[in-house]
Every structure is written in structure tokens, then in C-alpha cells.
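Tutorial, part two.
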Amino acid sequence: MHRTIFSTPVVNTLLRVFSVTFLRLAGWKVLGSLPAEAQKSVFIAAPHTSNWDLPYTLMVAFALRLNIYWMGKASIFHFPFGPLMRWLGGIAVDRSKTNNLVAASAQAIQAAQGPLQLVVPPEGTRSKTRYWKTGFYHIAVAAQVPIVMAYMDYERKLSGLGPMFVPTGNLEADMVHIKAFYAPFKGKNSSQFGAD
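Running the prediction step on this input gives:
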């Protein structure tokens, strides 16, 4: 995987101090920690209802000393913002092309030399959606890594890492369990998120 803001010396330290300070002053609590067995993992990023989710996610990642990569629509990687978005951990996803994103993502996780957490929003969009996409699940199964249930609750100003979840292979049953965890959380635009 490419170098990111999280693996850039000095900048990483300065931004961690900034992130911890900003979140504290803004009244946010960051909870949880990454289990040792989840150093390589797939993060569910939910609820995802606003452009503000990205800067808050980056700050929480600094606060928790994570090494995240995240998926975003290809249009935000166009000139002149592409290099910046990649440095922030972004991976462009072209929704108009049928490519094997699951296999490529799983291979990248397995090939990584150190810790790597791939953040995947199950809604696949900030807009209101009725159904969750299951790409995060299939990536975790293919890479043979656990899923970490990361969350951001704007109503209570809580963010962090929930429980680690190891896929059983029974997608339907596992999704019931996962969605039950996310049911209480409110995104910035809470009417656009439903864990059902």
C-alpha cells in the first residue's frame, strides 16, 4: 500500500497531538482500542451520512494510533486533490467499472508488511440507502482477517472501536448481529442511516 499521513514521521506525531486536543475541546469521547489480533483488519465505518465523517475519522484514527486506509468514490481523486486524498489514506473506487475490488483489497491487506486497517462504509454512499453493501464482509473473509465495528455517534459525540467480529461464513446471520450493534448510533444526518 502507498505511504500515507499515518506513516509519515513527525507529521504523524503533530497531527496526533492536534487530533486529541481538538476532539477533547469539541466534547468528543474516543473509546476502545485495537486488539492485537486485529492489526490487520477490515473496519466497518458507520453511520456514514456526511462529508464531515472523513476529517473526524482521520482524527479518531490518530487518537487511537491506527494505520487506516479508506475507500472513496473516484471523482474525489481527480486533479488537483488526488495526491492529497491518497496521502490521507484514500483508495479510489470507480463505481462505473466492474472490477474485482474484493479480491484486490484482500490481496493488499495480506501483502502489507505491517498493521493495516481498511475502512469500508457499508452504505457505500452518504445518501440515504435502504440496504447495506456487504463488500466489507467479503473482503474480510477473503483476506482471512477480523472485522472491527468502528462507529461515530454525532448525537452523543462518541466515536471509537466496538467489538471485533470474526465472520462465520453465514452472511445473513452475521449481518443481523452486526446491524444490531449499529442500531443505536446516530450519524450527522441521522435520517439517512438505518441499520435494518
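Confidence is low (pLDDT under 50) at residues 125-129. In part three we will examine how such features are distributed along the chain.
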